[in-house]
Design brief:
Pfam families: NMT1 (PF09084). The protein is an alpha/beta fold and 352 residues long. It folds into 2 domains: 188 residues, Periplasmic binding protein-like II (D-Maltodextrin-Binding Protein, domain 2, 3-Layer(aba) Sandwich), CATH 3.40.190.10; 104 residues, D-Maltodextrin-Binding Protein, domain 2. It is built from 15 helices and 10 strands. Helix 6 links the parallel strand 6 and strand 7.
Length: 352
């Protein structure tokens, strides 16, 4: 080969080397991109979940803390928190068609479950947040004094009505004929009582808490019986009983057990964190606008309420509490008269 051929060969070799290096470099970049995608995907190994939780309640704290403190992500879940439908029928439909995956809510959902709602309870999340109240100057001093009186609640079939009903039953008063029920918006209940439109109210926090603290209402029954009061227990307020529960989509439980377990673990860790950090939880709820701040709903009062709820995910005792409320709701006619309570709760409970 002549000198020119040798030079050309060398140039060709250098050029080919450059192409190989460039290709390798391009491949390296491509691999890096794939690697990043892989890392991102692996951080959500249990997929995505949608939580209908944005409704401004302090009770919803586990949803927000599991998201904000990274418990969902830690357990391989990409969470999306959306508005909670006001209509329970829309909520039921969302779980049936796979739109929603998990929520926290009270024993109000038992009749919905009996009527086919595709959700399963997975444990109690916190103790009570509902009280039966009367104005400070009322002649009513016990649940027995409510006979023949009118009671305001946020709505028919609301948990406020359920709690008042349980108290009435334990006082031997027929909740259907022994009192008159009236419905008002949450923020109008206390005013309705002060105006004499109703004799008592049964409502949720922070409205109940505000009525007591600012308007000096008296507590007749409180379903947060964390003090294990015998007096409240005699009114049907279960000792250390869970009021709100974690509910999972039945579809998720059946089709993706690993995802279901990851969801439960996330809420358990969130509840534990809340119980240890009530003030920090209040900051997050208010600063991130999960709970609307007002002159009353401030850090001090939100922290006090969080402390009183004793957040903790209770699987075994939660089931016993749910069974207790199912019996009470059956007695009141909110569940079918032929309801087999043991079967209903067993079928409606997440088995780990």
């Amino acid at each position: 080969m002549n000198k020119r051929g040798i030079k050309m060969g060398k140039k060709r070799t250098k050029w080919m080397s450059f192409i190989v290096v460039a290709a390798a470099f391009t491949g390296f970049i491509g691999d890096t991109s794939v690697s990043k995608s892989h890392v991102q995907a692996s951080s959500y190994k249990n997929g995505s979940i949608t939580i209908p939780a944005k409704n401004g309640t302090i009770c919803g704290a586990p949803n927000y803390i599991a998201y904000e403190k990274g418990f969902f992500k830690k357990n391989g879940l990409k969470a999306d928190i959306v508005a909670k439908p006001a209509n329970i029928g829309d909520l039921e439909a969302g779980f049936t068609n796979g739109k929603y995956d998990v929520l926290n809510g009270d024993f109000q959902y038992l009749p919905a479950i009996q009527n086919g709602a595709q959700i399963l309870a997975a444990g109690g999340l916190h103790q009570g947040c509902i009280q039966v109240l009367v104005p400070k100057n009322s002649s009513i001093h016990s649940v027995k004094d409510l006979k023949g009186k009118s009671i305001g609640t946020p709505g028919q079939g609301s948990t406020g009505q359920y709690v008042a009903t349980i108290a009435l039953q334990h006082a031997k008063i027929d909740p259907k004929t022994g009192v008159t029920w009236k419905t008002y918006d949450f923020d109008l209940l206390a005013k309705a009582t002060e105006k004499g439109q109703v004799d008592a109210i049964s409502t949720v926090d922070p409205y109940a808490y505000q009525a007591v603290k600012e308007d000096h209402f008296r507590v007749i029954a409180d379903n947060n019986n964390s003090s294990n009061s015998d007096k409240m227990a005699k009114m049907g307020m279960k000792k250390s009983g869970s009021c709100c529960y974690l509910y999972l989509s039945e579809k998720v439980v059946k089709e993706d057990p690993k995802k279901a377990a990851a969801i439960v673990k996330s809420y358990k860790e969130a509840a534990q964190w809340i119980d240890k950090h009530p003030a920090a939880t209040a900051d997050i709820l208010l600063d991130k606008k999960y709970v609307a701040k007002t002159s009353f709903v401030d850090k001090k009062n939100v922290t006090a309420l969080i402390k009183s709820y004793h957040f903790s995910l209770k699987h075994g005792s939660g089931k016993a509490d749910l069974k207790y409320y199912a019996k009470e709701l059956k007695k009141a006619g909110f569940l079918k008269s032929n309801t087999n309570v043991n079967k209903l709760v067993t079928d409606a409970y997440y088995q780990k």
